């Protein structure tokens, strides 16, 4: 499919999730099952299949890791300054976190795979792994510093260390390093499961999106939207250009960093003392806006 077709597909499937929830077909239980399948089955299959089939030198690109970290921490610093005058710690913590925390897994990797595939997907899998190791601790630190939460952070850290995406990335890189040949039938099976990652994730996200208009703080939502969906991709483009990264590295890094706010940030906000209504609104607005902004980013790197 073309880039435009891919983005149109994204919007249609996302809307199917919203429609399914409105019609009562996607209940909370069914949505949870779909999310579980995407996170524990489809995404790990995509990560392992994309990395195990490539040479280690092709996947482990230092500029990709350095560029990702540079953009992430720079945008987090910008968000800290932009949202410094928020009226409450609960609102400020959510605004800061959702200005940098990208939806790398449910949207980023499947979209990169649909748009480019091959070595770009393999490098995007590395970004997903590095992002899981970086974004989550940073987000937990922001909530711990700004809010008064009773939730043990140790529990959250234990959960992210057993992340199936991280485990599948380690397995894939190990297979690539050892030159393990994946049997054709296994590779085909992994590919079939991996192809379900994007539609499953999009339907689950669509069914989870909600927007309570009476509780929306438009200036705050607008500032999060600008930083996350416009400033972050622009900074990513400039960073990878400054690092003289090759085309596949630039595509993987910029597109992954151009993703909307992760749905998981709503969960963190709910559990760690953040403003859950604001978090839900930010997820909704950035996800819908990504249909347009991701298309614009693809015009630069595609």
From TrEMBL:
<feature type="transmembrane region" description="Helical">
    <location>
        <begin position="64"/>
        <end position="82"/>
    </location>
</feature>
<feature type="transmembrane region" description="Helical">
    <location>
        <begin position="188"/>
        <end position="209"/>
    </location>
</feature>
<dbReference type="Pfam" id="PF03547">
    <property type="entry name" value="Mem_trans"/>
</dbReference>
<feature type="transmembrane region" description="Helical">
    <location>
        <begin position="249"/>
        <end position="269"/>
    </location>
</feature>
<keyword id="KW-0472">Membrane</keyword>
<dbReference type="GO" id="GO:0005886">
    <property type="term" value="C:plasma membrane"/>
</dbReference>
<feature type="transmembrane region" description="Helical">
    <location>
        <begin position="221"/>
        <end position="243"/>
    </location>
</feature>
<feature type="transmembrane region" description="Helical">
    <location>
        <begin position="281"/>
        <end position="301"/>
    </location>
</feature>
<feature type="transmembrane region" description="Helical">
    <location>
        <begin position="6"/>
        <end position="26"/>
    </location>
</feature>
<protein>
    <submittedName>
        <fullName>AEC family transporter</fullName>
    </submittedName>
</protein>
<feature type="transmembrane region" description="Helical">
    <location>
        <begin position="33"/>
        <end position="52"/>
    </location>
</feature>
<keyword id="KW-0812">Transmembrane</keyword>
<comment type="similarity">
    <text>Belongs to the auxin efflux carrier (TC 2.A.69) family.</text>
</comment>
<keyword id="KW-1133">Transmembrane helix</keyword>
<feature type="transmembrane region" description="Helical">
    <location>
        <begin position="159"/>
        <end position="182"/>
    </location>
</feature>
<keyword id="KW-0813">Transport</keyword>
<keyword id="KW-1003">Cell membrane</keyword>
<feature type="transmembrane region" description="Helical">
    <location>
        <begin position="124"/>
        <end position="147"/>
    </location>
</feature>
<dbReference type="InterPro" id="IPR038770">
    <property type="entry name" value="Na+/solute_symporter_sf"/>
</dbReference>
<dbReference type="InterPro" id="IPR004776">
    <property type="entry name" value="Mem_transp_PIN-like"/>
</dbReference>
């Amino acid at each position: 499919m073309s880039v435009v077709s891919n983005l149109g597909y994204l919007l249609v499937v996302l809307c199917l999730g919203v429609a399914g929830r409105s019609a009562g077909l996607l209940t909370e239980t069914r949505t949870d099952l779909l999310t579980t399948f995407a996170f524990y089955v489809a995404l790990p299959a995509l990560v392992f299949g994309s990395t195990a089939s490539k040479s280690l030198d092709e996947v482990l690109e230092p500029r990709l890791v350095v560029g990702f970290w540079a953009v992430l921490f720079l945008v987090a610093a910008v968000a800290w300054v932009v949202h410094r005058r928020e009226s409450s710690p609960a609102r400020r913590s959510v605004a800061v976190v959702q200005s940098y925390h990208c939806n790398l897994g449910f949207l980023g990797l499947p979209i990169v795979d649909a748009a480019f595939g091959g070595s770009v997907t393999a490098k995007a899998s590395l970004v997903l792994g590095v992002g899981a190791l970086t974004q989550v601790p940073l987000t937990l630190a922001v909530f711990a510093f700004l809010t008064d939460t009773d939730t043990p952070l140790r529990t959250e850290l234990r959960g992210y260390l057993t992340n199936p995406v991280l485990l599948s990335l380690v397995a894939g890189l190990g297979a690539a390093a050892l030159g393990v040949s994946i049997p054709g039938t296994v590779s085909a099976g992994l590919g079939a499961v991996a192809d379900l990652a994007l539609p499953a994730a999009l339907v689950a996200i669509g069914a989870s999106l909600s927007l309570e208009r009476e509780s929306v703080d438009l200036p705050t939502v607008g500032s999060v939207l600008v930083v996350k969906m416009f400033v972050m991709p622009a900074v990513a483009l400039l960073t990878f250009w400054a690092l003289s990264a090759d085309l596949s590295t630039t595509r993987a890094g910029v597109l992954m960093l151009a993703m909307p706010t992760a749905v998981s940030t709503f969960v963190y906000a709910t559990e760690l003392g953040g403003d859950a209504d604001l978090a839900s609104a930010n997820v909704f607005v950035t996800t819908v806006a990504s249909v347009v902004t991701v298309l614009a980013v693809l015009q630069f790197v595609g």
